[in-house]
Amino acid sequence: MITAETVNRIVQFQADGLPVVSLYVPIDPGMSQSGVHSRVTSLVDQIDGLAQERDLPHEPRLSLRGDIARIRERMAEEAWQPKGLAVFSCSGRGLYEEVTLSRAVRDRIVVADAPFVLPMLAVLDEYHRTCVVIIDKEWAAAWELYQDEMRELTRFKDRLGKFDDYAGGNLDRIREELTKRHYRRTAQVLGELFRTERYELLIVGGHDFEIPAFLGFLNRDLQDRFAGSFSIDPPTATAAEIRAGADAILQRYEDDQEQKAVAEILDRAAAGGLAAVGVPACLWAGSVAAVQTLLVQEGVAVAGVVCDDSRWLAVAGDTCPLCGKPTRHTADVVDELVQAVIDEGGSIEHVESDTPLAEYTVAAALRFPLPPN
Ligand SMILES: [Zn+2]
Fold first, then answer.
1. Reported pTM
2. What is the pLDDT of residue 51?
3. What burial class does residue 260 get, using C-beta atoms within 10 Å of its C-beta: 0-12 exposed, 13-18 middle, 19+ buried?
C-alpha cells in the first residue's frame, strides 16, 4: 500500500554519496510472471557491469551489489501488479521501496546520487492526497485517502459529559462551549496533519446540521483545500460508507478540475497564447520539449511514428526530418508523447470526464512558442 508518507520518504531520501538505483517496469495486465521476470532481469543486467567496476570505491560498489541482489530476490518471490512498478534501492543507506503504479511507465533503470522520481510523480500527481474527517459534536476521526487506499490516521472523543456534571450551570451554554472546544481541537489536529503530511484536499463527513459550524473553525489554508462535505452518521459510519461519501466528493472535484483545465488551455489557444491543441501540434510540441502540461483524453490511442534518436514524434513519416534516420511505427504515439513530456519534467492530466477535449484528444500548455514545423 502506497501512503503519502512513503512517497515523501522516497522524494526526500538522502543518499550521502552512495548510488541509488531507480527501476521502472511497465506491467501489462496480460503479462505472465516470467514475462515480468525477464523484463526486470534485462534491466538489472544493464547495471551489473557498474557494480563490478574496479574504479568505483568499495562502499558504493557494495551498496550497488546489495541493490541488485535485493531486486533479483524480490522478483523471484513477488507477483507484481499492473500496470507499472517503480523500485528505489540504496542498500548502503537502508532504502528499499516498491511502488505500484496505476499507469504504464517506460521501462528503464537509472543509477544516480538520488532517487529518479519524475516518472513516479507524474503518475501519482493525478491522485489527490486527501484527508477525510468525520465529525460530530464530541467525536472526530481523520482518514487518509490516497490512490485507491484509505487508512485511519487518528480518532478521538471530547466528552460532553453527563447532566450531573453541569449541576447549577446553564446546560445548553456549557455544551455549546464544549462543542466549540472540540471543533477547535479537531481543526488544530487537521492543521498539524496537513502541515506534516502535505495533504492537498480536505473532505468533511457528518450531520448536515453540524458541519457548517465546524467549517468555521478551519484555518485559511484548510478552507482553501476544502473540497466538499457529505452526510453521514459519525459514530456508526463504516469505512466503506466513509469511502463512498468521500469518493463522490472527489469525483465531482476532479470533473470540475478537468473542465477548468481544458477550458483554460482552449481559451489560451483561441487567444493565440502558449498552447497547442490536437495531436499533430502536441506531437510537435513534445518533439521540441515545449510541453509544460499535457491534457490527454483517457483511453484514446493514436497510431504514429517516433524517432528513437532525436525523440521526434509525428502522426506519419518514414524518415525523421531532424536527423534523417528511419522512424519506428507505434500503435500509440500519444503514449510516447506522455512519456516524453514526463522525461522533460512536464505534467500530465488524463481527462476522463466529458469535455471539449474529446474532439482533440490532446491539448497542451506550452513553455515557449513552437518553432515552425
Ligand atoms: Zn531523428
1. 0.78
2. 85
3. exposed
